[in-house]
Amino acid sequence: INEAVLNGESLENGLYINYPGIYSFEYNDQKYPFVLHPIVEGVEHLKTYNESVTPLISAGNITLNNELYLSGTEIHNPGNYELTITGINGYQQTIQFTITPKVEGVINGHDYDDPFVITFEFI
Q: For position 75, what pLDDT does the model report?
């Protein structure tokens, strides 16, 4: 009587859920579907950075450009990145971002009539 079920398994009251995923909680003949997203800090979807980034992800299986990634590892090389977080029951979140080198003194697509200096910083 009054059995609680989470994703098909019985559970006890007060279960702490911190792993991202798609869940289905059942109690007293009522269903409560929900999704738990991870906390992501240090990087935003579709943003471009001109300095290194250090993504922090609270939980989940994480890959960066299809290779395992350890949360809190600095990413400093210029390029296009895809950070993918997977969880329970097919949950997936993807964050795409770009790191560009720091370039000063030149504007993309601009024509120049006089000599000038370009500076850039290797990250």
A: 97
